[in-house]
Specification:
The chain has one helix and nine strands. The chain is mainly beta. The strands form two sheets. The chain has a six-stranded antiparallel sheet, with no helix packed on it.
């Protein structure tokens, strides 16, 4: 069998040309998508302050010690501060986990100070024995504070002593 070099060269040229055209076409029709983003590093706007130390995060834990049948008042240990330059609305300060029944009194007095002059004004009282206890619709001014003071009288040394308060703001 005779090999026709002219036909083979033409066929080879057509094949190479087809491959070059296919490669060029594929490059022209490729689609691209991009994701662009910006990261803003800021600071926590509303912070807990416990015993003079700012708490990082949204949750603060506090341990309160009392004796049975003695009314104890605990003041000046827990604050909520607005570090933002804008005011924030406190939609709710609510008891979401109540203490057990072994308390004659178990209250949280919530005060505000937005003037910085040291004057604390009572905005509401939470009863830690009641899940329906709530303070609503208060403004937390830029640079302002809420102070949480406790009044507790336990009738027994045994019982459910845990509580949880939820602060909702915008």
């Amino acid at each position: 069998m005779k090999t026709n070099y002219k036909k083979t060269a033409k066929l080879l040229t057509l094949l190479v040309t087809s491959l070059l055209i296919a490669t060029a076409s594929a490059q022209v029709y490729q689609a691209f998508m991009y994701l662009e983003g910006t990261i803003t590093v800021g600071f926590q706007k509303i912070v807990w302050i416990k015993e003079g130390q700012e708490i990082i995060g949204d949750t603060v834990s506090i341990g309160l010690s009392v004796e049975p049948n003695v009314t104890v008042t605990i003041n000046g240990t827990l604050y909520l501060k607005n570090k933002d330059n804008s005011n924030h609305t406190i939609n709710s300060i609510k008891v979401v986990d109540a203490v057990g029944s072994n308390y004659e009194t178990c209250k949280v007095y919530v005060y505000e100070n937005f003037t910085g002059s040291g004057t604390w004004n009572l905005v509401g009282t939470l009863d830690l024995k009641s899940l329906s206890s709530e303070i609503t619709d208060k403004l937390l001014w830029a640079g302002g504070y809420y102070k949480f003071d406790f009044e507790i009288k336990a009738t027994s040394s045994v019982g459910d002593n845990d509580f949880k308060i939820k602060v909702t703001y915008e």
